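Hypothesis: this fold can be encoded by more than one sequence.
Test: take the structure tokens below, design a sequence, compare later.
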């Protein structure tokens, strides 16, 4: 079977083009709609409906549109129907992810995930953000998560770049050095 991202890419690109062409804050509205759709299709109850042959495509579409009505404009409702017609509804999380990558590139913004053993203070977050903006030469949008396996330091993921400054990685490098 083809890679899920390969199948999702044309949908994400088409939605991105529609969002850019729309008046107002189309990118933000589509981000919300795709995030909502992604959350809906990954819900266990909805997943069971999607896999139930007794549930018609129209019934499934109406149920999903009803659940996401707060976030779904006409374009998002049409996307739901199109994905169901093409048996691609399960790709919604990948479509949302690819859309966000396109949006970040268009806004000259880099989405960065920071994992640390302890919660970073506001001053640490600010200093890290400034250093990353300087290193990558663009605006940085950061999200933070606590991960006790990091032990100390932090792991930074920025697109394809991973900066592993964790104590766990340092201990592993030391172990490998001593083994040789």
């Amino acid at each position: 079977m083809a890679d899920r991202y390969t199948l999702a890419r044309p949908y994400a690109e088409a939605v991105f083009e529609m969002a850019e062409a729309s008046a107002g804050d189309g990118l933000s509205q589509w981000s919300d709609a795709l995030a909502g759709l992604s959350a809906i299709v990954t819900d266990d109850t909805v997943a069971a409906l999607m896999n139930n042959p007794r549930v018609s495509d129209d019934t499934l579409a109406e149920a999903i549109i009803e659940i996401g009505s707060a976030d779904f404009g006409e374009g998002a409702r049409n996307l739901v129907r199109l994905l169901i017609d093409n048996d691609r509804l399960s790709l919604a999380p990948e479509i949302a992810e690819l859309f966000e990558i396109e949006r970040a590139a268009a806004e000259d913004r880099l989405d960065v995930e920071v994992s640390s053993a302890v919660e970073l203070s506001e001053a640490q977050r600010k200093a890290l953000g400034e250093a990353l903006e300087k290193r990558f030469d663009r605006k940085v949008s950061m999200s933070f998560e606590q991960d006790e396996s990091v032990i100390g330091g932090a792991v930074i993921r920025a697109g394809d770049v991973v900066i592993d400054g964790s104590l766990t990685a340092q201990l592993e490098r030391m172990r490998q050095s001593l083994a040789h």
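Strands lie at 109-116, 139-146, 154-158, 161-164. The helical segments are 4-21, 26-41, 44-50, 57-67, 74-85, 92-106, 122-136, 167-179.
Hypothesis status: open.
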